[in-house]
């Protein structure tokens, strides 16, 4: 056996009469008048590949082991399929069962399963239709992200997972420490209450890094340093937020895409964001059509229409102030009241994109009080050069800004937000030595997967979700 063996997706394109082998896991086996019909899948395609086993070809005892969940290799001949929905199938001449699966306990049976149940068996759910499709979409979208930036000359930067500074200033960060130890006689796998730990020291200088350290909430500040030497860069990696939130839109661990461009204004940032959204969605629509069709039928009826509309439409641009005026005069009754200076909610963003404008919208010039310290301050003293990309169905998809490159203004903003200036000494150095106008944005990759699939819970877009009280697998 070799990794270059034929995938089932390739077998669908194999000419009839070809001898081949089909590897995969059994989805179902149906017996009819001495003939067995086996549906096989190896994850390379949404469609199952059918193998027909005529009576007497395989010993009865071996046939009994070909149950749902079993891993097998069928040898046989590819033939034209008389059934509908598939051009070819395989006439089996032999089989090898690698691993059996007890049909009475295998949790992924033919009947449908809830998304909640599938999260409980995250180690097996990729063999089912839904999460197999999610994984293929996620894989293709990741490839499209890299291709988009690489085609435009961006360098991929691996930013650190462990940091000593808080990018967003929100404080919801996971601490990284070696000052906790297990009490004598306890074992990590047996820890069930706080009594199993003890604190070795309360002095940060005695910790591993000699200072407080955290899991990063963003790679943006780090990647900005590379923009000041390589011009166009991006990061695509894991980030962590210690928010005690159990909503369908939040994860404790997720992946972020963050491009950064030197010699770039907010206008260039908006142009890149629009190109990015349209190209990545278009790429996934082209290469994952069967998977998206499944989501269109089973999850979100207007999914394909919405995605196609985004790819084909130019994005509307307006200021935050203009958006607030439209919302205030809309005549709508809002769950969250609208007023200048407050952050817009999903209901407001969806109304703008779905009812008022009818296509994606990029909002700019937000009040500085609701945005991060590093965003460039406008001349009015009240707003910053921030931008959000809003799309129909979910609202905000991307958030970005032109960065503050004036040293005195940046220092004032850090002071205003009560942050420790010494923790950002290297970030401030970028403004001391060859500062340039620069801009970038951030996109939560799982939020993009939600949009591409129509899934309503972000926990279903990542292989193993991490949320409050959940770190299984």
Written description of the protein model:
- The chain is of the alpha+beta class and 473 residues long.
- The chain folds into 3 domains: 8-99, Nucleic acid-binding proteins (OB fold (Dihydrolipoamide Acetyltransferase, E2P)); 130-172 and 222-460, BirA Bifunctional Protein, domain 2, CATH 3.30.930.10; 174-216, no CATH class.
- 29% of the residues lie in helices and 25% in strands.
- The protein is built from 13 helices and 18 strands.
- The strands form 4 sheets. Strands 6-12-13-18-17-16-15-14 form an 8-stranded mixed beta sheet, with helices on both faces. Strands 1-2-3-5-4 form a 5-stranded mixed barrel.
- Helix 4 (129-151) packs across helix 7 (289-298), helix 4 (129-151) packs across helix 13 and helix 6 (266-287) packs across helix 8.
- The chain is globular, with a radius of gyration of 27 Å.
Secondary structure elements and pairings:
Blueprint: H1 8-11, E1 19-32, E2 35-41, E3 49-53, H2 60-64, E4 71-80, E5 88-99, H3 115-120, H4 129-151, E6 155-156, E7 162-163, E8 175-176, E9 180-182, E10 197-199, E11 213-215, H5 220-230, E12 232-240, E13 253-262, H6 266-287, H7 289-298, H8 303-312, E14 316-319, H9 320-328, H10 346-356, E15 361-367, E16 383-391, E17 395-402, H11 407-416, H12 425-432, E18 438-444, H13 445-453
Parallel strand pairs: 3-5, 6-12, 14-15
Antiparallel strand pairs: 1-2, 1-4, 2-3, 4-5, 7-11, 8-11, 9-10, 12-13, 13-18, 15-16, 16-17, 17-18
Helix pairs in contact: 4-6, 4-7, 4-13, 6-8
Shape label = globular
Helix run count: 13
Average pLDDT for all residues: 93
Q: Give me the secondary-structure category.
A: alpha+beta
Low-confidence stretches: none
Strand count, sense and closure of the main sheet?
8 strands, mixed
Query: Helix amount, in percent?
Result: 25-40%
The strand line-up of the biggest sheet is 6-12-13-18-17-16-15-14
How many domain modules?
A: 3
Oligomer: single chain
Task: Find the CATH superfamily of the largest domain.
Answer: Bira Bifunctional Protein, Domain 2
Q: Give the name of the CATH architecture of the largest domain.
A: 2-Layer Sandwich
Number of strands: 18
Based on CA atoms alone, the radius of gyration comes out at 27 Å
What is the CATH class name of the largest domain? Alpha Beta
Strand content: 15-25%
């Amino acid at each position: 056996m070799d990794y270059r063996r034929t995938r089932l997706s390739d077998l669908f394109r194999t000419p009839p009469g070809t001898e081949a082998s089909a590897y995969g896991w059994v989805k179902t086996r149906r017996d009819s008048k001495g003939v067995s019909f086996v549906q096989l899948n190896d994850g390379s395609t949404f469609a199952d590949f059918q193998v027909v086993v005529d009576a007497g070809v395989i010993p009865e005892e071996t046939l009994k082991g070909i149950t749902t969940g079993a891993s097998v290799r069928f040898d046989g001949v590819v033939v034209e399929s008389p059934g509908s929905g598939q051009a070819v199938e395989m006439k089996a001449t032999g089989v090898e069962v690698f691993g059996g699966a007890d049909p009475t306990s295998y949790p992924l049976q033919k009947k449908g399963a809830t998304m909640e149940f599938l999260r409980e068996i995250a180690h097996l759910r990729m063999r089912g239709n839904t999460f197999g499709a999610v994984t293929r979409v996620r894989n293709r979208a990741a490839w499209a992200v890299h291709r988009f930036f690489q085609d435009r000359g961006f360098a991929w930067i691996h930013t650190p997972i462990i940091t000593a500074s808080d990018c967003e200033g929100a404080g919801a960060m996971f601490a990284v420490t070696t000052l906790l130890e297990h009490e004598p006689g306890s074992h990590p796998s047996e820890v069930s209450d706080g009594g199993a730990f003890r604190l070795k020291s309360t002095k940060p200088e005695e910790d591993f890094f000699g200072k407080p350290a955290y899991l990063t909430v963003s790679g943006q500040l780090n990647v900005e340093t590379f923009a000041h030497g390589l011009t166009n860069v991006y990061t695509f990696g894991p980030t962590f937020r210690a928010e005690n939130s159990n909503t369908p839109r939040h994860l404790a661990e997720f992946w972020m895409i963050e491009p950064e461009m030197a010699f770039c204004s907010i206008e260039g940032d908006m142009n890149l964001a629009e190109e990015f959204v349209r190209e990545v969605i278009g790429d996934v629509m082209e290469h994952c059509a069967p998977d998206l069709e499944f989501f269109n039928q089973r999850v979100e009826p207007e999914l394909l229409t919405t995605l196609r509309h985004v790819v084909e439409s130019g994005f509307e641009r307006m200021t935050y102030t203009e958006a607030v005026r439209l919302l205030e005069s809309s005549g709508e009754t809002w769950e969250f009241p609208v007023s200048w200076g407050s952050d817009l909610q999903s209901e407001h963003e969806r109304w703008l994109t779905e009812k008022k404008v009818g296509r994606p919208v990029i909002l700019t010039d937000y009040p500085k009080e609701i945005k991060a310290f590093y965003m460039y301050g406008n001349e009015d003293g009240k707003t910053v050069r921030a931008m959000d990309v809003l799309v129909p169905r979910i609202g905000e998809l991307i958030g970005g800004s032109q960065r503050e490159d004036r040293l005195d203004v940046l220092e004032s903003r850090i002071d205003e937000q009560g942050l420790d200036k010494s923790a950002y000494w290297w970030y401030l150095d970028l403004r001391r030595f060859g500062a340039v106008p620069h801009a970038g944005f951030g996109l939560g990759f799982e939020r993009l997967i939600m949009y591409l699939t129509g899934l309503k819970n972000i926990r279903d877009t990542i292989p193993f979700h991490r949320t409050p009280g959940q770190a299984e697998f």
